[in-house]
């Protein structure tokens, strides 16, 4: 049987090693029409007219707030991401950020850049001026980590190795992340507890309704005088105006982030980097390799791994005839699907059904070919969102 030349639209530059994970006969590019799948990094898809041909989205990264996940769920389209694949890159930038804040590195550099005159005059001015940039050391200081997922848990571990005390808060920590945490990490009961206890606070939560403006004026008011706030999560998690006010009032010592904004521009104690957290060769490759593999496995075999809106579902191929059905998580879906297959005279070879929140997903291998009529019958069942026939 000829291989299906599936089409993948890329909305950002995706690492070549990742793209190499797609089957060779796939057509991949930034101007592909009627794509079967989309690969994206941070491009904003909320206002995009996502073609009806799209069966899956792959986010080569962690955060999916740039993707209309709810709308895609209603169409039965899974959104994949790459959990943990860029965690080390972000961890390293956060450590760099803590050091920038602790040692006043950016203001110190700006001071030197502003000097003129002869070398002798410059040496004199640097010796006289350096005391303004004297800093603090990390051992013994307390780092507060809000969000102990892939990134937060790695940072907690690195900070312990640097001799820091670590206090963390995450109301929904996963078992994997909990296993990664050193026993020295103290568990806080709330965001407020972390803020009260920490000299450095770093944020590693997704941008959700519940985390928008998580760090606002009232919460900054609870922080230790002279604390350093680090935000390598998302811009919307922090109220920039409140941060600037706290910096000006001497409440916060520094704000270090990778989300530049006009409100922060030019402030002496803000370091606003480009959105660089995941921009390393290694992280870009890891993310692209992971998500391209997941996308291809879904398009070819219907298997789901690391989707933010669908359950993990995987079934070995034992028959050439497979149906993949996305459906609402409501009673009697499996019963209706099985009844339709039986009415069409098809024997079920293997079947798996799993759910996650409002979504459910069914993979069915049958012993003989599936007709177009049966696919239409299945698609017409109330609650069925998408049906794909995937002959091997
Ligand atoms: N700056 C960058 O380049 C960059 C790179 C990667 C990720 N990110 C951002 O960082 C976020 C976290 O990434 P990750 O890989 O660690 O994701 P993750 O899913 O592994 O971890 C997120 C953690 O946040 C926790 N959480 C959710 N709401 C919370 C709340 N209100 N209080 C405390 N904890 C809460 C979750 O339970 C989860 O454990 C991403 O969603 C993304 O927005 C930014
Ligand atoms: O959520 C993420 O993974 C980061 O924000 C990285 O975004 P990027 O892929 O645009 O670097």
Automatic annotation (TrEMBL):
Its EC number is 1.1.1.399, 1.1.1.95. Residues 322-392 form the ACT domain. Keywords: NAD, Oxidoreductase. It catalyses: (2R)-3-phosphoglycerate + NAD(+) = 3-phosphooxypyruvate + NADH + H(+); (R)-2-hydroxyglutarate + NAD(+) = 2-oxoglutarate + NADH + H(+). Pathway: Amino-acid biosynthesis; L-serine biosynthesis; L-serine from 3-phospho-D-glycerate: step 1/3. The keyword Oxidoreductase applies. Pfam families: 2-Hacid_dh, 2-Hacid_dh_C. Gene3D superfamilies: 3.30.70.260, NAD(P)-binding Rossmann-like Domain. PANTHER family: FORMATE DEHYDROGENASE 1, HYDROXYPYRUVATE REDUCTASE. Belongs to the D-isomer specific 2-hydroxyacid dehydrogenase family. Catalyzes the reversible oxidation of 3-phospho-D-glycerate to 3-phosphonooxypyruvate, the first step of the phosphorylated L-serine biosynthesis pathway. Also catalyzes the reversible oxidation of 2-hydroxyglutarate to 2-oxoglutarate. This is D-3-phosphoglycerate dehydrogenase. It comes from Thiobacillus sedimenti.
